[in-house]
């Protein structure tokens, strides 16, 4: 496979290194790994914070939508009452015209 030559190269390179160089190389790789883990932890923390902020914003928007829905219900109720009132006024006007017509005949 293609990874075998790389493994052979690593073995040859490691055999050419002194014990101190091997220790230093191992420490360097551990340091790089620790840095990568720290970056990953930071990314996770930022993602959690962003998710929390998003959830808070979503909750606020949900509450706002509920308030808007309640206000729309109130407006709908007011329009319905106003429509009934206009119909009632229209009937009263018709009744008044009929009475005026009868009075004009008398």
From TrEMBL:
What are the coiled-coil residue ranges? Answer: none
Q: What Pfam families does the database record attribute to this sequence? A: Sec20
- What residues does the Sec20 C-terminal domain cover? 31-100
Q: What is its main location?
A: membrane
User: What keywords does the record list, in alphabetical order?
Assistant: Coiled coil, Membrane, Protein transport, Transmembrane, Transmembrane helix, Transport
Query: Any one cellular component term from GO for this entry?
Result: membrane
Give me any GO biological process, just one: protein transport
Q: How does it sit in the membrane?
A: Single-pass type IV membrane protein
- State the compartments where it is located: Membrane
Could you say which protein family the record assigns here? Answer: Belongs to the novel plant SNARE family.
Q: Can you name this protein?
A: SNARE 12
Species of provenance:
Triticum aestivum (Wheat)
